[in-house]
Amino acid sequence: TVKVEINGTAVEVPKGTRILDAAKKVGVKIPALCVHPDLEPWAACGLCIVKVEGSPKLPRACATEVVDGAKYITHDPELNEVRRTTVEMMLANHPNECLTCGRSGTCELQTMAANFGIREIPFDSRIPEIARDESTPSLVLDPRKCISCGRCVLVCQQMQDVWALEFLNRGDETRMMPSGGALLNESPCIKCGQCSAHCPVGAIYEKDETKRLLEAIRDPDKHVAVQIAPAVRVALGEAFDLPAGEITTGKIYAALRRLGVDAVFDTNFAADLTIMEEGTELVERLTKGNGEIPLITSCCPSWVDYMEKYYDDMIPHFSTAKSPMMMQGVLTKTYYAESKGLSSKEIFSAAIMPCTAKKFECSRDVNMFASGEQDVDVSLTTRELARMIKSSGIDFHSLSDEDADAPIGAYTGAGTIFGATGGVMEAALRTAHYLVTGNEHAGITFEDVRGMDGVRSAEVQVGDTTLRVAIAHGIANVRDLMNQLREAKAAGQEPPFHFIEVMACRGGCISGGGQPYATSSDETREQRIAGIYKDDEKSEFRCSHHNPFIKKVYDDFLGAPNGKKAHELLHTHYTP
Ligand code: HC0
Ligand code: SF4
Known about the structure:
Residues 1-78 form the 2Fe-2S ferredoxin-type domain. The chain is α/β, with parallel strands linked by helices.
């Protein structure tokens, strides 16, 4: 360890600790805009300079390791003045559009300006005229608002390994954009939205589609059905100052009804359905040689996009099962519509997702129109739902819990854990044993597939087979796994795994690009994941095949899992 002083307070920290973190330990917050706990520090914004007693240097606290015996001064009038000037310069290069900006109230630059009490900007304004990029269905890039902190570029390159964004231009004119000034939809972007979740200001954000849902609600000719994704229930509360991980499912259902929607469904129901379809697919591939092993999950649209772009040789390995969101959408416009005597045209189906890529998935190909109409008309992020609730004057805290509507609303614990990394795998394992052997597995939980390691693997005995499974989250963790598969294939060896789960975002959907702005650190992720497993534990049923409404939908409507009708409505295909 190393002993240092921060503003006169002694503190002992492990060797290699950075000044910023040592200061945190004694309750001192050094301002910074480029720093993010998910990313390597790279000293871009210059706000975190500190003084070292006896030295003329002003090291940047985010990137500089403490030196044994050093005495640091983090705040004094002189440092404050330098920082204030830095913020003023940023403000001169930033449009004064707080009142109409989606980040107003959560913007880190706004907070910084408020904290420094800046009342005027003593520099000439120099805002480049660069048009907004609205080329993808998911995100809007507004380079005028960019403060060149670099977080989006780092997250896109380091965490996601996509390299859709880079820095263009130099000095004050530096802006994050796709290479060569291309549009986002011409870049390799997979629409995961992690850039938007990490941007401290309003320079990258989800495409707001709240108006479309509100218009449908007001349209007397539309019957509006809304589904909510697994991960929404453990994060929406944060937008209402509840702790991360607090389960607010019943309040969300109630809020949707107050907004005027006609039917409230749960994507978790379709997650149970996905397990029946994907589980059956796995068993058929394993026992009947009906397709390639390993089977790879396909419910994450950013992962599908990435795979089609970079691993199209893996297409035969992909599960053809649609994502739960799309399954829920098609059932809403067929099975549910029929039960109400409505046509698919009369239904408006919306989804609330933790994800920006789901906006793109809704209309990605013809299979997403299996009901004859677009099965999910619009997909909104958790952040958009929070705004709708706030702007409608609904006091979220005072809502009482309500239930989802039948017959496609009830879910099991297996459906809910889809929201966490490893959850789809665990849900599948809970049912695979039953599908293979006809008997229930002795235990419900599979602790080996849980956790936050970027790549995890486990062996699970299912009947006579030792199933080898692997899980990856955060796209940067996928490459090794896919290369391992390619190598085994090329060498004619047995595949290293039977079943692989991939989620594009670190932690899984609980940390999707459309979730409430948090510091997005692993602490928040773990709190949300704990909420997901709590929801699982308190569920009456915990295996998808035990969901009585899943049995009913097969009996009444779909026939057998992987049967003809199920294939027509619930499966899809991929194109390189
Ligand atoms: Fe997910 Fe999903 S688990 S992708 O992370 O499979 O977005 O929450 O809704 O569709 O269920 C997201 C979350 C979903 C889907 C489900 C899957
Ligand atoms: Fe990169 Fe994801 Fe943002 Fe696209 S959405 S630019 S892939 S971080």
